[in-house]
Amino acid sequence: MSLSFAENLQNALEEFQTGTQRFEEINHHLAKNLAWQKEAYEHLKNLLIHMVKIGASDINLGGPRTNDKVWYRVYGNLEPSQEVPTYTNDEVAAIALSILSDQQKTILFNERSIDFAFAFSTDQSQKPYRFRGDIYYERNNLAINFRHIAEKIFPIESLEIPEPIIKRLDLQHEKSGLFLVTGVTGSGKSSTLDSITDLNNHKNKAHIVIIGKPIEYVHKSDKSLITHREVGDDVLSFRHGIIEALRQDPNIIIVGEMRDPSTISAVLEATDSGHKIFSTLHTSSTVESIHRIIAEFPSDEQERIRFRLADTLKVVISQKLVPNKEGKRTLAKEILSVDYSVQAAIRNNNITEIFQMITEGKNKGMFTLQQDLYRLVRNGTITAETALNYCNNKKIMQQLLGYS
């Protein structure tokens, strides 16, 4: 046990209490003992400070799966830490409940999970550390994940996105349409969206509305006015946020994630009205992203959605973070830039033809994931083995690498 009050708390709890009943009882004792609540909160802060110090992207604790240990993910590798205290499941519950408001606790107990943003400073002169938090049930215990939100935005040029694509991302050159950043969880989608936001913020006199769950990086308005709206606190849902944004004089709307048909429909409506929309999807390739959007709708609606998507989709960036030779991670990506040929392929339901268009579209800023991985192998950033492990098509990857 690592919290000084852990034994007293355990003695105060009935052995038969489990799940929500037990968490509510722990919350009751924390409310009566503010010193306990403060200590639990300070322990979490120390764990998160250590997370930043070692360069971890994520921290995981709580639930039987952890064996009472705190697990950190550093450069993609998840391991239990030997440098921080261990915590029982009741201690983790106390830590989790110490940072939530009464409203958030109600959501957690009713829905068995809650996402939120969390920030703190170690001193007044320092910019706050920011994290995306998720507290959820795991085998009737509370489990915690925090992801560190980098204090620094990567300049768009550092992402090695071709100039023709950067121009399309820039409001100055293209005023409307749907622009997607896709990838699996932990692939850096949010960081890329922040880089795109930063590009427009420093170049265009415009209004950018960001709708997130939660809001991660908080941008400071420069040439652009930037509005941040968090789902749950400032707006009821992504769909509500998009519809309301249309009445808020926006030039760009950034939607944290297109999670369901209602959000996708609202995004398409916003692009139809002449706005520029950036959003994300959990897909691993550009072509899969198109399939995913269409497949979210009933079969009798898919032709209509396909035609709307052909008219509105402009750029898709699908990305992965892959291990490099320095033991860190490097961005690999696939880029689709929609032109008349791609539009025709979407309308005519010949979406599988788009991959070949990407392969041959270098002069338009397009390339496949395999082509980008091959570039990283040639310049000595990653190994051929890594390229094979992270590609979307091993046969094509082997051909590029010259394997028989």
List the helices and strands and how they pair.
Layout lengths: L5 H7 L6 H14 L1 H20 L2 E6 L9 E4 L2 E4 L8 H10 L3 H10 L1 E8 L8 E10 L2 E9 L13 H7 L7 E6 L6 H15 L3 E6 L12 E6 L7 H8 L6 E4 L5 H12 L3 E6 L4 H10 L6 H11 E11 L5 E9 L2 H8 L6 H6 L9 H10 L5 H7 L3 H8 L3
Parallel strand pairs: 7-11, 7-12, 8-9, 8-10, 10-11
Antiparallel strand pairs: 1-2, 1-6, 2-3, 4-5, 5-6, 12-13
Plain-language structure description:
The protein is 40% helix and 22% strand. With 404 residues, the protein is α/β, with parallel strands linked by helices. The longest helix has 20 residues, at 34-53. The protein folds into two domains: 6-149, 2-Layer Sandwich (Beta-Lactamase), CATH 3.30.450; 156-367, Rossmann fold (3-Layer(aba) Sandwich). It contains 16 helices and 13 strands. The chain has helices at residues 6-12, 19-32, 34-53, 89-98, 102-111, 163-169, 189-203, 238-245, 261-272, 286-295, 302-312, 340-347, 354-359, 369-378, 384-390, 394-401; strands at 56-61, 71-74, 77-80, 113-120, 129-138, 141-149, 177-182, 207-212, 225-230, 252-255, 276-281, 313-323, 329-337. α3 packs across α4 (89-98).
